[in-house]
Amino acid sequence: MASNQTSLNDAKFAFPINDVEQQATLEIETEDFDYSKRAQWLRAAVLGANDGLVSTASLMMGVGAVKQDIKVMILTGFAGLVAGACSMAIGEFVSVHSQLDIELAQMKRENERRNNGGKEEQEEGAKESLPNPLQAAAASALAFSVGALVPLLAASFIRGYKVRLGVVVAAVTLALMIFGWLGAVLGKAPAVRSSLRVLVGGWLAMAITFGLTKLIGSSGL
């Protein structure tokens, strides 16, 4: 009787421990799944915002190196916004659609090789976790436009040439730090290192564009 009671007590204590372990495992797996699912749109959104910010600001700084007219600067930035958003959307759509075709073909080959029952249900369930080309394209275009609006809005209300350039650089610097930090936090990466990397890259792009355009413009070409 004593041995039976001991085994029953052990069993009673064993089940809650197993339940806790299983619950913790499920939570870990859920977190991993959420981040893997988030990776596609996060990559498109963060890259789109950074590209829109840096490319548009660099274009405006390049034009500002040789032209002090605010209208020319704004029109250049707006043209860069529209062209860049369309380019990002088309490029992202083609890229993600190619990836989707490859994964669907691989999934079909695996299902035919296994020849399991309920193959159609398994395939439909797996398709739901695959990237969406339209969603990625829209995220890229929207994020690019949001990033490009930062230098455009910063330059729109400043008439003074030198002050305008300084305000654009300051606004872009702040936005680069925010985008770098946001991407690091959502992607569980080091925030300081990511922000500094994005910030230095943006500064270099603007400085190189400004310097080369100033050099070519001063040579009379």
Automatic annotation (TrEMBL):
The record lists the membrane-crossing segments as 70-90, 136-158, 165-186, 198-217
Topology within the bilayer: Multi-pass membrane protein
User: Keyword Acetylation on this protein?
Assistant: no
Q: Which Gene Ontology CC terms are recorded?
A: vacuolar membrane
Task: Quote the biased-composition stretches of kind Basic and acidic residues, using this chain's numbering.
Answer: 110-127
Keywords of the record, alphabetical order, are:
Ion transport, Iron, Iron transport, Membrane, Transmembrane, Transmembrane helix, Transport, Vacuole
The entry lists its GO molecular-function terms as: iron ion sequestering activity; iron ion transmembrane transporter activity; manganese ion transmembrane transporter activity
Location relative to the cell: Vacuole membrane
Q: Which residues form a coiled coil?
A: none
Q: Cross-referenced Pfam families, in alphabetical order? A: VIT1
Output one GO BP term: intracellular manganese ion homeostasis
State the residue spans of region: Disordered.
Answer: 110-130
Give the main location. membrane
Catalyzed reaction equations: Fe(2+)(in) = Fe(2+)(out)
What is stated as this protein's family in its record? Answer: Belongs to the CCC1 family.
Its recorded name reads Vacuolar iron transporter
Gene field: LOC105138460
